Amino acid sequence: MYTNILNRIRVGRLSKSSFDILNRQVNKPMPESPENPKSTIEKTEVDIEKETWDKLDELLEDPENAFLFEHDVNRIAIEEAPTALEALKIANDLIDKRLEATFKLSVLGNVEGVEPISINIEGVRKVLESIQANQEKIGEGGDAIVVIHKEESELFGAEICYKIAKAKAQMEGRNPTLVEAEVQEEFFREMQEYTDLCIRAPEPLYAIKYGKYEMIGMEVLQAVSVKDIVNGKGYISSWFNVDAFCDQLQELLNRLHSNHKYHRDLHRGNIMIHQSETEPEDGKWGYVIDFGYSGYAILGSDPYKRDVGDKTFTFLKDDDIVSNLRETLNRYGNAN
Ligand SMILES: Nc1ncnc2c1ncn2[C@@H]1O[C@H](COP(=O)(O)OP(=O)(O)OP(=O)(O)O)[C@@H](O)[C@H]1O
Ligand SMILES: [Mg+2]
Description:
By secondary structure, the protein is α+β, with helices and mostly antiparallel strands. It has helices at 2-9, 18-27, 37-40, 45-61, 67-70, 72-79, 84-102, 121-133, 150-156, 177-193, 226-230, 242-258, 320-335, and strands spanning 104-107, 135-140, 144-149, 160-165, 199-200, 204-210, 213-219, 223-225, 261-262, 271-274, 286-288, 295-296, 305-308, 311-314. It has 13 helices and 14 strands.
């Protein structure tokens, strides 16, 4: 069962799993209450039948689901179903079956007790739907939106955020989501070792590819990006030492490069600054995020160029951010 698996994923990592909440929410019917208008207006059987056909129409209109009517066996099974509800169930089961073939979940890191797993695909679909229905956006870049789960956040503060790839993400030169998550894991681990530096990466927990849907679940940071600070959304606390931070960012880049790792997308939106009145206990003042273009340099080739088909992509040079960041942070830090 997926519940057990997802509980095992959190072993030794987060104290609370958003999936506990998600599972409860998914499995629990809406409580009957005067505020819940659905329970006060009794739906007729005709209404329900119509709604069900509408849902089915919606599924059939999605070009991804063309196989439902293009293959005679599927079309006949749906057409001959005695009720709309049964037709919808047949269609959903077929969609799940097809997605099982493309579904991939990578559990990152070596968490004790986590083994290769089999997954209840319908459960995964429900969890993803629950995230979609309850999402609250906390960030956005060119390729992805980053959301937290609203209910979780209201109950105890979100600990996990979900980076969901945009449908039209510019794929050229970019890591596919599952690769991005693995690269993030490697950068995260290396940065964890640098206890003398005040910068780290957010911990990735898992990545999911499910049909068109691609997502990384990761630790939510109590931080805002330098880009957002420039736009007036966050602050730089008095304990934050701009020069020490920028010197240590340069040192971090030197160490990563000597291990052949390159970020390749270091702009203001991808550096985040910790938000709290007092200096964080773990000594991490800021974070490097977004490993969508990161990876290893290939021996003997330019680490900032990648050939894709007949095109060559040129990435941002990591070191270029440092002087710009020093100037920006000094300006905004002093303004506070
Ligand atoms: N772990 C996190 N915790 C809190 N906020 C985050 C986290 N990860 C990302 N964000 C927010 O979401 C924004 C977008 O995330 P990210 O940079 O990973 O997306 P992207 O689409 O790959 O960006 P880019 O345009 O740089 O390619 C970030 O600038 C930041 O504000
Ligand atoms: Mg980004």
